[in-house]
């Protein structure tokens, strides 16, 4: 089995395949962050679903008074929910880095196995046993060069800075102003309602005064009427009494 493994250059093939996977992961990560970086230059008008989602969640948290103190953690949580080919973005980032170390480890182990096999079987030249190490080192170097050239980490950091700046310095100020305007409008509305209520109360008081005045006038009128009636009936009684006395004298 070991003989077939060495003669078939299986370790070298595995190293190359791992390296290719790492290159693909780097290119995918670069494409994603290049797009996000471009969109993050104007987050307010961005058509990116990720940025729209981040903006919407931040606004909702602000309105619910769930203030966000760790903005980077908030961005991380939303960013790492993004998937490429149903695989989270952070997985592609990790693959790009880990494949470089895997290539170096496989190259070292492959060289060790080959050299040991060559020595045990007196196969010359022994330097041929170092080929897996050379392949592993070469693939790791290629991955490092591509990683440095595409600068995924730098693009990621700039993306974070752009989004953080928008959330803290633009969107937050905008929400603060809206909140103040809404507060002023509510205060004005309350004052208007109080003024209307006060006006109604004044009208009610005025109406009550009029009713009381009318009631007093009616009471006075009734009182005067009673007095007149009383005097009138007294005069009638006195006249009747005098007539009776005169009639008795004549009769």
UniProtKB/TrEMBL annotation:
Region (Disordered): 199-222
Name by which UniProt lists this protein: Uncharacterized protein
Domain of life: Bacteria
Membrane-spanning residues: 6-28, 126-146
This protein's UniProt keywords: Membrane, Transmembrane, Transmembrane helix
Biased composition (Basic and acidic residues): 199-214
Organism: Natranaerovirga pectinivora
């Amino acid at each position: 089995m070991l003989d077939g493994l060495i003669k078939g250059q299986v370790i070298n093939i595995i190293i190359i395949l791992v390296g290719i996977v790492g290159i693909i992961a780097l290119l995918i990560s670069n494409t994603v962050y290049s797009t996000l970086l471009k969109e993050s230059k104007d987050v307010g008008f961005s058509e990116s679903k990720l940025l729209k989602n981040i903006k919407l969640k931040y606004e909702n948290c602000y309105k619910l008074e769930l203030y966000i103190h760790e903005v980077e953690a908030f961005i991380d949580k939303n960013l790492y929910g993004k998937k490429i080919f149903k695989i989270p973005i952070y997985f592609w980032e990790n693959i790009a880095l880990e494949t470089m170390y895997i290539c170096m480890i496989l190259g070292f182990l492959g060289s060790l196995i080959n050299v040991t096999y060559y020595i045990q079987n007196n196969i010359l030249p022994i330097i041929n046993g170092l080929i897996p190490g050379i392949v592993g080192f070469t693939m790791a170097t290629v991955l490092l060069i591509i990683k440095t050239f595409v600068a995924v980490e730098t693009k990621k950091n700039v993306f974070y800075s752009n989004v953080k700046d928008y959330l803290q310095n633009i969107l937050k100020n905008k929400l603060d102003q809206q909140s103040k305007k809404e507060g002023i409008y509510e205060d004005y509305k309350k004052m208007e309602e109080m003024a209307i209520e006060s006006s109604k109360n004044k009208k009610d008081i005025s109406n009550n005064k009029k009713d009381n005045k009318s009631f007093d006038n009616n009471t006075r009128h009734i009182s005067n009427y009673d007095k007149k009636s009383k005097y009138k009936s007294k005069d009638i009684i006195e006249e009747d009494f005098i007539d009776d006395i005169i009639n008795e004298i004549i009769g």
